[in-house]
Every structure is written in C-alpha cells, then in structure tokens.
Amino acid sequence: MRDSVVFYRSFYEAIKELPDEQFAACVRAIMDYGLDGLEPSSAGIAKSIYLMAKPQIDANNRRYQNGTKGGRPKTNQEPRNNQTVTKRKPNDNQSLTIPEPKEKDKEKEKDNVKDNNKKTFSPPAVGDVAEYCSQNGYKISAESFVDFYESKGWMVGKNKMKDWRAAVRNWARSQRQELTAKGSKPNQFHNFAQRDTDYEKLVQQNLAKKLREDMGDYGKGN
C-alpha cells in the first residue's frame, strides 16, 4: 500500500477520448492497482488500460521499495586475477610524511656526525710551521719546534697532539713569558737557556787591559 502513484501522460492520452464513465473506470483501475495493488475484477476497457499501465506501475513500485530499504547495498569490487592493483601516487602539491627516526637511530646519527667532525692529525713540516709563524708574527725557530715534538712522538703530556698550530701559539707564549721574567733579548731556541753575559762590562774590561798593556810598553820604551 502506497500513499502516491505516478500517473503518466501516456496513460492520460490513452483514455482522454473515452466517455466519462469509461474514463473514470480506467482512472480508478490504474489508481487501485498503483496504490493498493488491486486488479480489476471485470473485463472491459478498464482492464485493458490497466494491463497497459501495469508494467510501468510495477517498475515504479520496485524503485519505491528499494528506496525505503536504503537502496541496493554496495559491494566492494576486488580486482580479478588478471588485473593489477595500481597504488595511487601523491600529487605534486601533496607532501610525503616521513616517520621520525627511533631513539636508537638518532643516537647512531649523532655518533656518525661526531666521527665525521673529528680531524685526523698530521705532523707539520718545518716549512708549514715557519709560514704560520711568519703570518702571525711569532718569533720562534720552526726547526726547533718540529725537532722537539718529533722527539716526543708529537705528544703533549700524555695525550696525542690534536692541533699543531695551538702548540705553536703555546710555544710562543711560553717564550714571551720567559723573556719577560729574565728581561733579556729573545733566544731563538725555546728549549735552551740564554747565557746571562754582560757584554758591555766585558768590553770595558778588555779595553782597560789593552790600555794597561799599551802604557807598559810605552814606559819600557822611555
């Protein structure tokens, strides 16, 4: 039983020329079947019109029933055996989300960065030290510096030297401190103490000795 029925123009065109009584009987037959599913009980023009309209009314009723049930259920179509599933690729304007690394992976990455940042020490040549001293104004003997640390295996205390330029700066700084403490002229060899000799006094003594010798010779001549 329905609350409405579709009365098509084709139905009206088929019966509009009939006499009023037959017209009413045909309309009644269509509406009784469409609304309540009742078929005409007697033969005649009304039943003929009913038979003409019945397929369309049945189709409408099936669509109505399907609509009240929510429509035909959807089915997930799986690819056949001879079909391949194509994975969708992101568009150019879409960004890929990369999962963050785990804690262990982060620690390994940090260790790798530290290892890459470590510099391998290479002993300098005398020319390298001399050039560095000349550029920075350090008054030290590059040859003495290299000889000294080569004899120690390029060790600074108990540790392997990491930066020979820093060692040069410390060498020059130590030399300046020693010169300041002694108040003497720079010694080009850092590891040997400069002799404390008063050259001016020595010259005066030599001159006085020479003068006495000359005066002695003059006295003998007279």
Descriptive terms for the model:
222 residues; mainly alpha; two-stranded antiparallel ribbon; 8 helices; 57% helix
Set out the fold topology:
Elements: H1 9-15, H2 20-36, H3 45-68, H4 103-117, H5 126-136, H6 142-151, E1 155-156, E2 159-160, H7 164-182, H8 199-221
Antiparallel strand pairs: 1-2
Helix pairs in contact: 2-3, 5-6
Structural overview:
The structure is a single chain. The chain has 222 residues and is mainly alpha-helical. Among the domains are: 60 residues, no CATH class; 57 residues, no CATH class. It is built from eight helices and two strands, in the order ααααααββαα. Strands 1-2 form a two-stranded antiparallel sheet. Helix 2 runs parallel beside helix 3 and helix 5 packs across helix 6. It is rod-shaped and about 185 Å long.
Provide a concise account of the structure shown.
With 222 residues, the chain is mainly α.
Number of helices: 8
The chain-level mean pLDDT equals: 77
Distance between the termini: 173 Å
Strand order, sheet with most strands: 1-2
Order of helices and strands: HHHHHHEEHH
Proportion of helical residues: 55-70%
Q: Count the strands?
A: 2
Rg on CA atoms, Å: 59 Å
Structural class: mainly alpha
Largest sheet data: 2 strands, antiparallel
What fraction strand? Answer: under 5%
Domain DUF6291: 4-73
Organism: [Clostridium] asparagiforme DSM 15981
InterPro entries: DUF6291 (IPR046258)
Biased composition (Basic and acidic residues): 100-118
